Amino acid sequence: MKSRPTLRDVGRKAGNLHPSTASRALHNDPAISPETRALVLRAAAEIGYHPDPLLDAFNQHRKEVRPQKLEPVIAFVSDFESREALLHSPHDATTWEAAREAAERLHCKAELFLVGPSQLRSERLSQILHTRGIGIVIVGACHDLQLDLSLQWDLFCCVRIGAQHLSEPRRAVATDLRGAARLATRGLLAAGCRRIGLLAASPRSNHERDFVHAGYLLESASAGMPPSAWFATPESPTIDDASLSRWIASGQLDGVICDDPALIEALRQSRIPCAALDATSLPSDVAGVIHDHRHIGSQAVEQVVSLARANQRGAGNAPVITLIPVSWRDGASLHPLPTAPTAKPRHRKS
User: Fold this and answer.
1) Matching CATH topology for 73-174+294-326 and 177-291+330-334?
2) 206-216: per-residue pLDDT in tens?
3) Where are the domains of the chain?
4) Which of 269, 267, 220, 226 is nearest to 248 (CA)?
């Protein structure tokens, strides 16, 4: 009587693969490449292999009663020059920490991989991830607008955090920048300002700039207010106090939305009501929008793990962006600093 084909036979037919590799391929393990999975499926069909339902049930029971020793690795890709530099960026450090904690809750492990001119090149990163069998990638904390991140996306289940200057992966989790601009405009309107300007001193991608601008224009139109927006670019000169004063005077502004802490302080010293586009890490007396960076990190992990469990690899066919809501915080910066009282001259009696 002819014996029943085994996983060892499937692995041998597929090119001398280990039986465990053949088993993982047949169960759509995301760590197995599409090419290897295709070889195993073809080999199983050719020799007539069919899984043993009793053995599958036993293996499933064993997995449930015995915790897995090996945790799937999530590659968290950043373009910072070092881990220390990332940890010194409050927003990115919070996102990374939340992603790491979310990975642990989902029985995974997040590892940091640094890319850039002085770090890993895209080709080398793809090679390392493939060699280590890492099939889950989060592109996060990438701010270089010139970054070229060309991975073999078909090998990975992947999600992007922000980084609107990157075209891939197309699945993304990001702050609702349009909502942030709307909240900041409303906050200044509620404080009594009637001519509000938008000053974005940090260079942004075209997509991020458009989101911010759209929110600001929408609220300006609703209030019947003429818009006055200034977006810095990498080629534009540094915004100094003199150019800032000229811009405010030309627009007759009585309130400013700003994304630069130094300029916010200059506005306060000039007694101009102002609100921060992201006040999350600024002093509590600065009014502005609070971004939920922890939610962004955890949401990205939950999404990419769901993709991995469904074995959905690739950059995605169309852009799908999950926007994380923002909140508003009042602060003293909405009200101009009081003018220092001038000393009254003393008249001496003659």
Assistant:
1) yes
2) 889 999 999 99
3) 7-55, 73-174+294-326, 177-291+330-334
4) 267
